[in-house]
Specification:
InterPro entries: CDP-alcohol_PTase-I (IPR050324), CDP-OH_P_trans (IPR000462), CDP-OH_PTrfase_TM_dom (IPR043130), CDP_ALCOHOL_P_TRANSF_CS (IPR048254), Phosphatidylglycerol_P_synth (IPR004570). Keywords: Lipid biosynthesis, Lipid metabolism, Membrane, Phospholipid biosynthesis, Phospholipid metabolism, Transferase, Transmembrane, Transmembrane helix. It is found in: Membrane. The structure is a single chain. The chain has helices spanning about 30-35, 90-100, 105-125, 135-160, 165-190, 195-215, 225-240, 245-294, and strands at about 65, 70. By secondary structure, the chain is an all-alpha fold. It has a two-stranded antiparallel ribbon with strand order 1-2. A hairpin with a 2-residue loop joins strand 1 (about 65) and strand 2 (about 70).
Length: about 290
């Protein structure tokens, strides 16, 4: 005895049954087989999709439309927001709290080390009157370690998501502290003119103050010129810390001259960026006020 073939001529091949019966012992028709292939059950009218109540939602909160069901999408934080587009209230805040890096991470430890090296550098620099070549070499080693850690702590914090509020505050303080201590020691010993120390430190303090003044309009990003200035300053000051003579002493003078030029040029560039940023911020606020009044 042979089964009755499904009459699904012209339908999709995946919706056919070569030999089978529908529930209840009736021969399987094309409509029944196609409905089973789509995962729907006969509704009250005999061919409608399965419904749960009158809301039109299938299992797991999926909305049904016609014969196709669109599953609800989970939010980014793994919490179903109901409509599949919005995360649950407070989910982002909770995720940020979980992802907050510990204060005792490698980047902050390097920053703390740099802060501790400041008084150590000053003591080594001024030991035996400040002119002993051996003590100056130890002071140079402390200064070099501080500058190297300055290169690594920021990179580690950004690469491995170790940015903390402590690091944001302590890192620039440590940078300016070691550089300021070196410049003041050199000028007090007569190795470096006071006007050079005044130009470099005045620029650093001025740019920091400028950032705070325009922070309501935006953040002034660090430029390539600023990074080159920092590198040149570190090399020049390091050469002055060492008790160099001959052509090396002449070379360090030219390196310091280049550092001073970059210091002034990048400082003027920051002033220009601050002016442009402030004008853009004021223009955007005025445009927003006009839109609200209109």
């Amino acid at each position: 005895m042979t089964g009755v073939p499904a009459s699904a001529a012209g339908g999709p091949s995946g919706a056919r049954r070569t030999a089978g019966t529908a529930p209840g012992g009736m021969p399987a028709t094309g409509r029944t087989v196609a409905r089973e292939a789509r995962g729907t059950a006969p509704g009250p009218s005999g061919g409608g999709p399965a419904r749960r109540g009158a809301s039109g939602r299938g299992p797991a909160g999926a909305r049904t439309h016609g014969d196709e069901a669109a599953p609800a999408t989970a939010s980014r934080d793994g919490v179903d927001a109901g409509d599949g587009t919005r995360p649950a209230r407070g989910a982002k805040i909770a995720a940020a709290a979980v992802n907050q890096a510990s204060v005792w991470n490698i980047a902050n430890l390097l920053t703390m080390l740099r802060l501790l090296l400041v008084p150590a550098f000053v003591m080594l620099m001024l030991a035996e009157g400040g002119y002993d070549p051996a003590w100056r070499s130890f002071a140079w080693a402390a200064f070099a370690i501080a500058m190297i850690t300055d290169l690594f702590d920021g990179h580690l914090a950004r690469t491995y998501d170790l940015v903390t509020d402590f690091g944001k505050i302590a890192d620039p303080i440590a940078d300016k502290a070691i550089m300021g201590a070196a410049l003041i020691c050199l000028s007090s010993l007569g190795d470096l003119p006071w006007w050079v120390t005044g130009v470099i430190l005045g620029r650093e303090l001025g740019v920091t103050l400028l950032r705070f003044l325009v922070i309501r309009y935006g953040v002034i990003p660090a430029s390539r010129g600023g990074k080159l200035k920092t590198l040149t300053q570190g090399i020049a000051v390091g050469m002055y810390v060492l008790a160099l003579t001959g052509w090396l002493a002449t070379l360090r003078w030219w390196v310091m001259a280049a550092a001073v030029v970059l210091t002034v040029a990048t400082g003027l560039d920051y002033v220009k960026q601050a002016i442009v940023l402030r004008r853009q911020g004021i223009a955007e606020r005025e445009a927003a006020l006009e839109e609200t009044e209109a």
